[in-house]
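Exercise: predict the fold of this chain.
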Amino acid sequence: MTSDAVGTQSRARRLGILAICCLSLFIVGLDNTIVNVALPSIGKQLHASISGLQWTVDAYTLVLASLLMLAGSTADRIGRRKIFQVGLVVFTLGSLACSLAPTLTWLVIFRMVQAVGGSMLNPVAMSIIRNTFDDPRERAQAIGIWGAVVGVSMALGPLVGGVLVQGIGWRSIFWVNIPVGMAAVVLTAAFVRESKAPRARALDPVGQLFVIVLLATLTYGIIEGPLRGWSSPLIATLFAVSAASLVALIAYEERRREPLLEVRFFKSAPFSGATLIAVASFVGFSGFLFLNTLYLQEVRHLSALHAGLDTLPMAGMTILMSPISGRIVGRAGPRPSLCLGGIGIATGSFLLAGLTPTTSFSRLFVAYVIFGIGFGVVNAPITNTAVSGMPASQAGVASAVASTSRQVGQSLGVAMVGALAAAGLVDGAVSSGFSQATHAGWWLITSCGVFVFLLGIVTTTKWARGTAVRTAQRFGLDEAQAAVSEVPTTA
């Protein structure tokens, strides 16, 4: 076989691995948002309040956020392909269980099972991509595609969910994961080689416990605050525990040689910025879907399908702009995409800040288009900034932090805008007063867009790039004493 033929075959294999990894990301991302359009149907059949609907979404994103970093380090230790396949199986079985859930409580539990499997997919897949593409230009393009899939999958969720809920019922939204998950397991076995980090990172159960307590208490406090009272002893205690867990986590991780959360990453201004931008943009996106879905179906009395179709402009612009943003990042750096993303998110949500039961659909259309542009361009620079410049052996941990930031943003977005909306409702019931109750939530999302814009400028300055270089050099010095290259092992 000629060298050209070998090169073509090798490139085809790399592209195949990229496709498999993106497939796993697609079903996890889709499941993040496909549930939103089914919330009214789930609420009616399972008799759920607005806080119950919040937990249907946040049970998934909360567990996902809590376990992503553990999954990344475990894969480096045990084997990336092995953990990836286990994650696919657990996610698929969890999806099946969700489709059979008899009550809201069981649905929430099975959503958590789904999330356990999903946590093994995203960071592990990114690590596989990072170590499959050796050429920096090809790697940047692959990461750009990866980042684009995040936006595409999450934007398609409401549309796909609307079609399924309207045609079959809300349980069908979980069926779509089953054949895709099974196919991905088979394809992974056929094309993905097993690999491990040259020196496995030590497990960090204490750090993992701090992360779980931090996110769980914070989210529970925000969701239950409107019902129990913000000044109630329970809510105050939850917030106090959350704050204490954050302080303890940072203090503990700084002393560990191989921490679960690599605090040194945050000495890089671009990395820290990417983390905060991920949280802010996904607070906006998840809040947008939560408020908009309930508004269209409960206030405007649209069917699930019609509601999904109405958000198609947002999904379409996200799908269109995501790959364009990946190319922009590769050629001009992250600043243009980050600034445009912040402007789009802020402007789109600002147009919805005065929502009423009779707001014209033309205004909604314009808002959806602008918001979709903003969210569509913001994903690629987040992923690229988080991973670029990091040594190969740190790629899994870095990408896990970026993925965790997205999930934390989603959890907080649903929790915060849901809490703001619930505070303006009578007895927690969604009624005609819901449009007025959403105003505070839309202002919160607008502020998130402004925050993304400002960070997009600050974290792309010469000073910020200097902090990234110094951080990468520190890691390089640390890793000079160990094998830096990834060592593929025989399957």
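Check your answer against the key: The mean pLDDT is 79.
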